[in-house]
Amino acid sequence: MQLQINGCAQEASAQTLDALLRELGYSDRVATAVNEAFVPKAARANTRLTTGDRIEILAPMQGG
């Protein structure tokens, strides 16, 4: 399905947010939002994705 991930159009086969993170190679130590709504880690497995969804994935970075 076609998704907007961090502002870029991308094709993905995952049906849930949790599966999408695994498909893209992210660890579970990220913050996520779908269509501008925060999705906590515990809800990712039950968050279904549909074509056109806007996904934001924020990963912590070290440094200053």
Describe the protein in words.
By secondary structure, the chain is of the alpha+beta class. Helices cover 12% and strands 31% of the residues. The chain has one domain: Roll (Ubiquitin-like (UB roll)). The chain has a five-stranded mixed sheet, with no helix packed on it. Strand 1 (2-5) and strand 2 (8-11) form a beta hairpin. The longest helix has 8 residues, at 17-24. The chain starts with a strand and ends in a 6-residue tail after the last strand.
The CATH fourth-level homologous superfamily = Beta-grasp domain
Task: Report how far the terminal alpha carbons are from each other.
Answer: 37 Å
Beta content comes to: 25-35%
Shape: globular
Class from helix and strand fractions: alpha+beta
Could you report the average pLDDT, rounded to the nearest whole number? 95
**Order of the strands making up the biggest sheet:** 2-1-5-3-4
H/E element string?
A: EEHEEE
- CATH class category label: Alpha Beta
| Number of separate structural domains | 1
The oligomeric state is single chain
Please work out how many helical segments DSSP would assign. Answer: 1
CATH architecture group name: Roll
Low-confidence stretches: none
Report on the biggest sheet: 5 strands, mixed
Radius of gyration: 11 Å
CATH topology: Ubiquitin-like (UB roll)
Q: Count the strands? A: 5
- Assign a percent range to the helix content: 10-25%
